[in-house]
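Extended Data, panel c. Modelled sequence:
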Amino acid sequence: MSGKSTVTPMMAQYLDLKAGYPDALLFYRMGDFYEMFFDDAVEAAAALDIALTKRGKHEDEDIPMCGVPVHAAEGYLLTLIRKGFRVAVCEQMEKPEEAKKRGYKSVVKRDVVRLVTPGTLTEESLLDARSHNFLAAFAEIRDEGSLAWVDISTGAVHVMLCPRVALGPELARLAPREVIVADGEEQNFAELVSDSGAALSTLGKAAFDSTAGEKRLTDLYGVRSLDAFGTFSRVEIGALSAIAEYLEITQKGNLPLLRPPVHERRKSVMQIDAPTRKSLELTQAITGGRAGSLLATIDRTATAGGARLLERRLSSPACDLSVVANRQAAVTFFVSDVRLADDIRDLLQGVSDLDRALSRLALGRGGPRDMTAIRNSLAQAVRLSGLLSESVLPEILTDAFQALFGHADLADLLERSLVAEPPLLARDGGFIAAGFDTDLDEARTLRDKGRGVIAKMQADFAELSGISSLKIKHNNVLGYFIETTATHAERMMTPPLNETFIHRQTTANQVRFTTVELNEIETRILNAGGRALDIEKTHFEGLIQAIVAHSGPLGALARALSEIDLAVSLAFLARAEDWCVPKLDDSRAFHISGGRHPVVAAALEKSGTPFIANDCDLSDSPIWLLTGPNMAGKSTFLRQNALIAILAQMGSYVPAKSAHIGIVSQIFSRVGASDDLAKGRSTFMVEMVETAAILNQADDRALVILDEIGRGTATYDGLSIAWATLEHLHDVNRCRALFATHYHEMSALSAKLDGVDNATVSVKEWDGDVIFLHEVRKGTADRSYGVQVARLAGLPRVVVERAKIVLEALERGEREGGSGRKAIIDDLPLFAATPTVAPQKPKESQVEKRLKGVLPDDLTPKEALSLIYELKDALQDTRE
């Protein structure tokens, strides 16, 4: 008989739970596995590369099924999150035995305990310890916008006013994993959020309501008013409210420990848009990943918190002189005291990630090792305070020093209660130290040494009864019992022994007894293992409460340790790489002496090649027009000066002999060619869009670096665009700029515009080859050396020689004017099917001629030395 199959109670429960999370995969707990069914199973099996099976039928169709072990679930979760999935985790809310009490076929109660999304991860294995994991929300009220963001793994919360036009650069700065917007706004933000690398999520518009949001936030923080945290506009409260609502939904009411929201001002940090961050490779290399980025090159931090602070500072250089000066003073303090810095660095190696350990414990996802991480860090804080106590500290370090104190009671509790090396999970037990709880010690003794306890009791009973052959035995029917021969049994059944020994059973040859004490010990031995675990779990919950109650001071300590770590690491970097302390002020100065590109210099150092340092002075002439051939180092020079400004304003020393920088409000970079085929943009269109953004936004405190503007179109079109762009930077934006170009005609602008100066990258030509000296000097390049560079790149010799002929002809035509140029071009068989120039052997130099007649084995040492001098003279004559 055909027809629809009956839905089983378990599958009915699954479908009911799944209906509440239609856009997420449902991890449905069944014993030791999380199982998925229907379309979830099909998608998950493909994404995780696991077997897709089936389980039963639904509406006469096989039900697809797949599953992952609970103990390995975190790895699978990470894969799914990285592939764009959201996962609803459904747990069993009772034991199967409890369900059976309601009836043989009763289904175990289950419920979703958490919705896992990219911005709400807390597990250590799912996060990069050295980077933040931000969840952001954008709110708008009429034309006013606000951006709020939180890292629930550390509890840090921030909010700022942010018009929609500024959202892209701010997302590029923060690099959030997930961005929340109001329902119906997805299309307006999809491209912007996607470009930042984040996932887009939505909430109902009620979640962004500022009136209800204020109540939501005061309840969250347990305060009557938000005034204690500062003054927030309605739109800022709306963005914070959306964050709170989203955490309520995803964490199922089990909210993380959140610090009070910090109000940020957009103008307080250097503005760097997404293309510029990508071009300068601040935190990620062009090829992807940290390796090769500025962050990876300068990171000498010893702690995860210090590494995250370094990333924040590098992504958000300060524009406030007092802030920069305070940070710089902390670095200088450790530069001047090498021994102290090294001692502190050694101690910091033992500091754990306090913020994330605290967050996991508060959310109920932590374990004993998170507690020992806090304990060990508190011990290191005491040692650090001892090292710093004798020093006169700068302001930032003084504040950090104060935060090292006030943790003695918690440190003592954790030191007494926890073993040195605990297990990963609390359910395994064994993490409470011996001597902390006498009941626990007794339970463990009974659990681990039950035989010894019984043996001692047997000896005591033998002594009491005077029967040396008395034994305590065990079987599955009677449990523990006392056994003796029938001959001795009569003594045990007569006063006064019968008051202690209770008769239980008589066999053919033996009589068995028990006692009240033996019955009690038996029960305690059988339950000892479970009782020990229960006692430890109780202590675990108590320790969590003690730690969470101390969360405020622990958060301050975490920030202090990160601040100390960052200052020490930047001092270590400055000493190791011979960097200088920059001078910063409110002027428009920009004078770098002996500047180096930190990433390129580090790469060259590994290969044993020296980096050629260069000066840059935009103080009097705020715009340099830089000419020179490709591969000569123009792009490196442009980028290194931008990076020096960023490093200086984050509070670091800089790779130069000296540096004087007037505060830079914005950095814009248009260096390197790229297209965006997904959006239908050619390389030239991308170049023009980015150039337009620079010209429309750069203020008079900006630093702009531009390379080869106009190269993606016809020569005269490109030259005219580049010319007009430079004039606009000079006359309208009035910013500081480095403008690299192959259009040598533009060098004439230095005579027309007071703020423009010419500079070039030096090269030498020898025997038809070009030698790059990588030295930047005042002046202009006489030509681009493009043909020579093509030769170095390995173009076939016939192509290179042909290019020389064409170039000479075109240059001659240029000198002769329009008609001459046309005649010469008409005479050139530019589109000949076969090469018109035969390969030529390279011209033999004087040195080569001389060496042909030399037999090295026949030379005496004196003759060899004379030959070297002779060849050197010949080489000099050739160069001249």
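Residues 830-838 have pLDDT under 50 and may be disordered. This feature is highlighted in the accompanying rendering.
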